[in-house]
Amino acid sequence: MPLPRSRTERKPGRLRSLGATAAPLVALSILFPACAGDYVGRTQGVRRSYEAQDYARALKLLDDEAKGPQVDRLLVLLDRGMILHAAGHFDESIAALAEADRLSQQLDGISISEEAKALLSNERQRAYRGEDFEKLMISVLQALNYAELGKDEDALVEVRRVNERIHKMITDEKKPYEQLAIARYLGGILYEDEGDWDNAFIDYHEAQKLQPDLGTLAEPLLRLAKKTQRDDAYQELKKKYPDVPEKPLGRDEGQLVVIVESGLSPEKRSAQREHHGERGVELVDVPVYRDRWPRTVATVQVGEQVQSATTVTSLSEVAKVHLDDRIGRMLAKSLASTAVKAGVAAGAGALTKSEEVGVATFLLLSLTTRADLRSWLSLPAEFQLARFRLAPGKYQVRVTQRGITNEQAVEVRPKRIALAIMRKY
């Protein structure tokens, strides 16, 4: 009577199949290790502390994140620069954003190995390079930092960098972008403060083209159009802003511009877009921006004067324009990624002589096909401005938004423009 077969002897075919399937899956798990959550998920505590104005804790938590994946290094620097800026640590913010700017430029050089890895896995395997508008915002924040420190020349250098970069994007890269009105308006403030009336008018005028309804913020446009003898421009502006006074500044009169960095920038969410190709209609996972801040207008009070702030730039809208411009390229890259994964899966099936292995490999690789939802979430949603003409002296600026009031002390000097920058959430 034959001896009974062992469990191993009884099902050799099944064991061979399982072993062949497991080998490529183990290799793939080594090639693409799972991260301990993505950057957006890991930094929720940073954002909660930041939005509660507990900047010290936000920075401490961000220090811990700096030890994390190097693919998120740029985001750590960007968030650090914004948090330091909001906290009023302008010198430290300048240093962090300068490092972010250098890293961003380095990352703009294409890494062939990283691109290949992203095709086989997903965009989250790549170092975050930043959206185009985020790269521009580095210079905008740097300009504000320098302006707060009284370094107007350095601030103007950053304003020019914004305009030069976006001009290159439009002319050389054929991207349908417009300049950031906040950069142009800030340039007008800085030039006017230096007494460069012509360049001040030009930058204010460019800002007005980008944001046609400046309201009371158009006051220097009318005043400087008259001062620089731009009669046609003055008449046109007077028709557009008939109720805005433009009398010359008094001998001892000064000005104050309050810049409210308002709200929370939009966040990326995953969505599916249809792509009509050779294989018919395919659904592709792409990021889209969703607002996370109910828009409200800040009220600004200085002494007895009270104004509603005017939105000069909505980063929520800018972000959507820039991302929409990339959708076509993202769709193409996602489809290329699917093709590469199909090729790898076919190779795994041929190598193991198992159709099951090929199918399993493709399914595993397909699980990694996710949209990259990382973004610079510490940015404001809008830049809202209010402008005042005041006698020289010290004032308390009170900014109220969503029922919460914050105050900041400021000194106004004769013939000069003081800036007060306040972050509101």
Q: Categorize the overall geometry.
A: globular
CATH topology: Serine Threonine Protein Phosphatase 5, Tetratricopeptide repeat
Helix content: 40-55%
- Sheet with the most strands? 4 strands, mixed
H-E order: HHHHHHHHHHHHHHEEEEEEHHEEEE
* Whole-number tally of structural domains: 1
Strand order of the largest sheet: 6-7-1-10
Mean pLDDT: 83
Instruction: Classify the beta-strand content into a percent band.
Output: 15-25%
The CATH homology group name: Tetratricopeptide repeat domain
Q: How many DSSP helices? A: 16
* The level-1 CATH class: Mainly Alpha
Overview of the molecule:
This protein is of the alpha+beta class and 425 residues long. The chain has one domain: Alpha Horseshoe (Serine Threonine Protein Phosphatase 5, Tetratricopeptide repeat). 52% of the residues lie in helices and 19% in strands. The protein contains 16 helices and 10 strands. A 4-stranded mixed beta sheet has the order 6-7-1-10. Strands 5-4-8-9 form a 4-stranded antiparallel beta sheet, with no helix packed on it. Helix 11 (181-194) runs antiparallel to helix 12.
